[in-house]
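Today's session is about reading a structure prediction critically. Students often jump straight to the picture, but the first step is always the sequence itself: look for stretches that repeat, for charged clusters, for runs of hydrophobic residues. Only then move on to the predicted structure, which in these notes is written as discrete structure tokens rather than atom positions. Here is the chain we will use throughout the hour.
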Amino acid sequence: MVAYADYIKGWWISWLAREMGAIPIHSSRKSMVQAIRTAREALRDGDLVCIFPEGQLTRTGYLQQFRPGFLSILKDTDVPLIPVCLVGLWGSIFSFERGKFFWKWPRQWPYPISIAFGKPIHKPTDPGAVRQAVEQLGVSAMKQDDGFRMVPARRFLRTCRRSLWRSKAADSTGAELTGSGLLTRSLILRRCLRRDVLAEDENRVGLLIPPCVGGMVANAALTIDRRVAVNLNYAVRSADVLNECIRRAGIRHVLTSRKVMEKLELAIDAELVYLEDFRDKVTTADKLVAAAQTWLLPTAILERLLGLTHVDPDDLITIIFTSGSTGRPKGAMLTHRNISTNVSCFAELLRIGRGDVLIGILPFFHSFGYTCAMWSVLLLDAKGAYHTNPLEPRQVGKLCHKHGGTILIATPTFLRSYLRRVEPEEFAKLNVVVTGAEKLPHDLADAFEKRFGLRPSEGYGTTELSPAVSSNIPRSRAVGMPEPFAKEGSIGKPFPGISVKVVDLDTGEDLGVNRSGMLLVTGPNVMKGYLDEPELTAEVMRDVWYVTGDVARIDEDGFTFITGRISRFAKIGGEMVPHLHVEEAIAKVLAADEEELHFVVTSVPDARKGERLVVLHTGLSRTPEEICRALSDAGNPPLWIPSQDSFCQVDEIPVLGTGKLALREVQELAREKFRDADKR
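Below is the predicted structure for this chain, in token form.
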């Protein structure tokens, strides 16, 4: 093994290193050259040589950049390279998890470690390709891990047992539960649902509940009862869409509350079950049994009593219907493994600990709300504080201040509303703000940092990916990290166990660094498929890779930059023009107030050039002529500059309840406003 010399000091370890034929290497050039020669001679003698091409131990759990020098060992030899991946070391005493190496108590014993070996690579020349081969081994190993960590319900029991007396969940109504209270109420609700409502064969149950303690209890109760919880999108405000989702999921009962249904005023094609009615149905026996299960029964026996040991990690845990930003909502089927591994990745990235309080404002029908805001709290030692409406900034600020919120997961749209309506002292304890679902504008990040002293970090994910894929590491959680932990404008590096690549838009050929192409993702977070839609599933899957529909490039450090979305490109005169880049250019010209979304770029058919760029807006501070001139003066390509007659004022920009652009409605509105554009 080629080992850094400082790691094998001391009489006992230096003796062991000599006995094992270790090749010491120092940071000096002379030492490196000598080590490479020694390793090459060992290969020619028929020995195996092992080297760690990252050059240092990771401080984040991320696979780091491979230094190109390691390939020089193979020069003038016919020896193949065998990729090897160590899986599961992060979190052990040998990792930097908890901010130090070695000197910490192990979280469990024995600690499961996997070593995966890949197929030999003959005459490798690209360090990036070797790195991706190792990354793929990690993905495969995580997919094959069937330990209890992959079943959220079993982890939930253990988390509550560790937090019996500690506050675990609260919301803006004043409700607050300890770990024991959360587990007890979940067990009670499970008993009541089994006895009074749900049939034995009723596998899927709907929920119409905003983010709150009651919503957490209902989701947990269904999961420990081995049923599939389907959180329905009440933001659509359309009974037809909701009932279509209910029909496709085969839902017979929907858990909700009278207060919610009074606001929605929708006719639901399923039997409604009001959670507040269970107050009169809970018996003394229900309370005693649940209390005994919470406080007295060993966890190993409780999980067997609940049948959780029979849950396959690849069984469904939920169906989340996509937001429908580009068309009819599709039901993404997510498994226990999807959710559990995604929470673990999320926790590793942000170093989430017992002292953290996660502010949950994203609805549970939103994949980020379901996994990152709800299940992260149910599976980790952090506390969750919830509010039902993310667009009520004053209530969100008060909630954060009251519970000492440290982590906020939101969309840029929601952050805009907090800039003027949340007091800085209310976000005083926040040290992590991560945004997703849409591009984080630089101006918004600047304004947020100026007001609250904390810069938001951008992440990335999709419903089909459970949802989190990558993120920049917030500075507050990057203490002691020598490698680059964030890059402005990027979506960060993929989480450990997740692999990304870009391929040519036309040929599907793998592309190297700094080349734009279609972004593909693989890992244990990839959904099982779309509900009852195998054709649609096949369209977005290439073997084990999920096709995101986003155009991106990956730089030499492994950071991914989204450059556009296939549905958000205009093809003008044969050239692909990204709407997103044009929006960013116009935003720079306007130096716009980021409190609310007030313009969007899209495209409409054009008889001469195929398509033309158009700008829908609710009012601009400069005239179209001034904007176009400024865009030209800034050096933007002519194709990227809308014509002066391509600006149109509208009453509002169509936005989904999740804060994302309603792309289909935007396109329909543009076509209506520029109905004759393709005839010009």
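Discussion point for the tutorial: The first helix runs from residue 11 to 19.
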